[in-house]
Amino acid sequence: MSDAYDVVVIGSGPGGYVAAIRCAQLGLKTACVERENLGGICLNWGCIPTKALLRSAEVLDHFRAAKEFGIIAGEVRADFPAMIQRSRGIADKVSKGVGFLFRKNKISHLTGTAKLLPRKGAWRPHQIELTGKDGASTIEAKHVILATGARAKSLPGITLDGERIIEYRKAMTLPAQPKSMVVLGAGAIGVEFASFYRSLGVEVTIVEFLPRLVPNEDPDISKELARAFDKRGIHTLVNHKLTAATPGPSGVAITVEPNAGGEARQLEAEILLVAVGVAANTEDLGLEHHGIALERGFIKVDAGNRCGDGLWAIGDVIGRGLAHVASAEGVFVAETIAGVHAPEVRYDAIPACTYCHPEIASVGLTEDKARAAGIPIKVGKMPFRALAKAVAAGEPDGFCKVIWHAETGALVGAHLIGPGVTDLIAELTLAKTTEVNAESLAYTIHAHPTFAEALRIATEDALGHAVDL
Predict the structure, then answer these.
(1) Which of 143, 289, 290, 448 is catalytic?
(2) Cα 132 to Cα 128: distance, rounded to the nearest angstrom
(3) Distance between CA atoms of 117 and 140, rounded to whole angstroms?
(4) Quick count: other Cβ atoms within 10 Å of Cβ 132?
(5) Span 366-385, mean pLDDT?
């Protein structure tokens, strides 16, 4: 049957499209169902277009600092619509690239909305109802991989109207640059948009319920980011909760209160950007027909990403939250289905990157968590202001912090903030997953002058013999 497959992947984000390609590479007849654009949120509304916008902001900042580098430039100003247009063009190009890979690997791209139908018997293939612009049809698959992702959520009583109170998708396509913005939430999405809009000259205030910015990062990182944001003129209110937001014709009236009690504050901004997390896309998938359980709204899976007989789930829909984790899970599930060697995903070695200015990257445990776990550690830190390449590049802010096991020399964690750290973290992630230890990294020759030298020097600092500090 032309509509019978070995594997049907529902969703084409960085988990879904990677899973589909790997299945096809392994000889499985594969289809991928997508109701919007290939690439999902990441390629169309998340990772890729936001990085395009942040790159525009970075170039703008470089031009503004031209005089510091001995360059005389004329008036420099942002062309906001052109930035948005460039970002959307890049997202479209990358999405089309996924389509090319599907054709190359002979994957059936099915446009529409998929829903699991009740199974007629454990030995029978799964039936999936596909609803598209031409009506409904049914396809079959021995295995179904759920990769439907997640969407932005709001807080109770705060309605996203798409004009004054918005989420990240709308923040990438505003018709005009606002003069002021309040960002609710200081996680990766919140601080990235705060950084972007501040570079354009927008008055930005971040409101965060928890005691510090980027609360999942090491406290030293949060402290350094707060200092850098303050230097850039980004206002921050941590330990505050938003209690009311009333949109009007020219802006939003916002009320915030200290968590510990005290006098409420009134804020005014043209735009309120809500960046408080995501909700899994699990509605109308037919999960109830297969006893698939939810936990905090996300699909519950076992250690092998199974959520039922011949049913699998990966990525944001199970609450993982990072594109590269979804991709790794997609490969793992595809190889498991095909019966080939499938190394498990190392969840203790997942790099996390935030692309604000300055950039943030981390892997492994924070210093506090390592000490709380009773792990004997040696900690080293290299400030970028002491690194020749960073000074020459005009990027002296930030540091590299490494945490090594005091007895085995294994990497426990690494926490970086500053220039190029979202690329530098790859070396430390490799150390986390291989037999690289503190001594072998410290005695590995790093080219001079480079940002990567900071990793070696920080490790030497942990070992007690840093010659550059």
Answers:
(1) 448
(2) 13
(3) 10
(4) 14
(5) 98
- The number of angstroms, rounded, from the C-alpha of 410 to the middle of its chain's C-alpha atoms is 26
Known catalytic membership, residue 448: yes
Q: Which residue has the tokens 């109701």?
A: 35
User: Cα separation of 374 and 372, whole Å?
Assistant: 5
Alpha-carbon span 159 to 165, nearest angstrom: 7
pLDDT at 340 over 70: yes
Task: Please tell me the distance from the alpha carbon of residue 4 to that of residue 13, in angstroms, as a whole number.
Answer: 22
Q: What pLDDT score was predicted for residue 2?
A: 54
Residues in Cβ contact with 135 at an 8 Å cutoff, skipping those fewer than 6 apart: none
pLDDT tens digits, one per residue of 384-395: 999 999 999 999
Whole-number Å distance between alpha carbons of 402 and 172: 35
**pLDDT at residue 281 tops 60:** yes
Going by DSSP bridges, is the β-strand pair 203-208/180-184 parallel, antiparallel, or unpaired? Answer: parallel
- Phi, psi dihedrals of residue 138, rounded to the nearest 5°: -125, 135
Average pLDDT over residues 46-72: 95
What pairs with residue 258 in β-bridges?
240
Q: How far is CA 382 from the centre of its chain?
A: 26
The pLDDT score that the predictor gives to residue 78 is: 94
* Residue linked to tokens 């971040």: 206
CA distance 353 to 384: 18
Say what the alpha-carbon torsion angle 219, 47, 185, 326 is, to the nearest 10 degrees.
-70
Q: What percent of the chain has pLDDT over 70?
A: 99
C-alpha neighbours within 13 Å on the C-beta side of residue 386: 15
Model confidence pLDDT, tens digit, residues 124-135? 899 999 998 888
Paired tokens of 56: 């525009």
- One-letter amino acid identity for 131? T
Amino acid at 195: S
Which residues, including other chains, have CB under 8 Å from residue 146's CB and lie 6 or more apart? 10, 11, 285, 299, 307, 311, 312, 313, 314, 317
Helix (H, G, I), strand (E, B) or coil at 72: coil
Q: How many helices (H) and strands (E) does the chain have?
A: 13, 25
Using alpha carbons, select from 264, 255, 270, 265 the residue that is nearest to residue 204: 270
Q: Quote the mean pLDDT of the chain.
A: 95
